[in-house]
Specification:
The structure is a single chain. It contains six helices and nine strands. By secondary structure, it is an alpha/beta fold. The chain has a single domain (3-205), classed as Rossmann fold (3-Layer(aba) Sandwich), CATH 3.40.50.150.
Length: 206
């Protein structure tokens, strides 16, 4: 597995398709992940959603279909491989935008909900990214990150990234439950935290 990079040279993550994996352990973990993140998102009854760092658009398309005809926008860095996947994950109420997260091209309060699913561990300044999300959202933020240091310990246990002490390529920030809750609480009330193994998910009311 090699890291992929955006046109700006930023490491986006790994080429490993966790959503389409046939590995039974991965499929079990991802089932718990998607069940919880879907549940948290739908609990807000969003009228519009901005998905920051949407990647290939797997979850973004799933949400667009679930809340149609509500507006959904997926945003990620300019990358040809990701853009090609956007064509495969389309929906009538879904738009994709290639743009950095540090200065979002949207108006204040333009969206009901802003999400960052497995994103804040990748960005150079997670505080700035979250602040931009809060600016563009009216009611809620939904964030998920790998649960550290458990994440790195699991990588080492499975023999991955030993030279990096278990750190997944592209992860430049590492959040414990307490740390991500504190960061999110800078923008509102943390109304629910879930920890489907091995992730942390936080829902914030602005």
């Amino acid at each position: 597995m090699s890291p992929t990079r955006s046109a700006e040279g930023i490491v986006l993550g790994n080429t490993y398709d966790k959503y389409g994996s046939r590995n039974p352990v991965t499929r079990l973990l991802m089932a718990g992940f998607t069940r919880n993140v879907d549940d948290l998102l739908l609990s807000t009854s969003p009228e519009s959603v901005l998905d920051i760092g949407c990647g290939e658009g797997v979850l973004t398309q799933r949400w667009a279909r679930a809340i149609a005809p509500a507006r959904v926008v997926g945003l990620d860095l300019d990358d040809p491989a990701i853009a090609a996947e956007w064509e495969k994950h389309a929906a009538p109420n879904l738009e994709y935008v290639a743009h950095a997260a540090q200065a979002l091209p949207f108006a204040d309060g333009e969206f009901d909900l802003a999400t960052a699913i497995e994103v804040l561990e990748h960005v150079p300044d997670p505080r700035a990214t979250l602040a931009e999300m809060a600016r563009c959202a009216r009611n809620h933020l939904l964030v998920s990150v790998p649960h550290e240091p458990l994440w790195r310990a699991l990588n080492i246990a499975r023999g991955a990234y030993w030279r990096e002490l278990g750190n997944t390529p592209g992860h430049v920030n590492h959040f414990s439950k307490k740390a991500i809750e504190a960061l999110c609480a800078e923008h509102g009330d943390v109304i629910e935290t879930r920890m489907p193994f091995p992730w942390t998910m936080v829902l914030v009311r602005l």
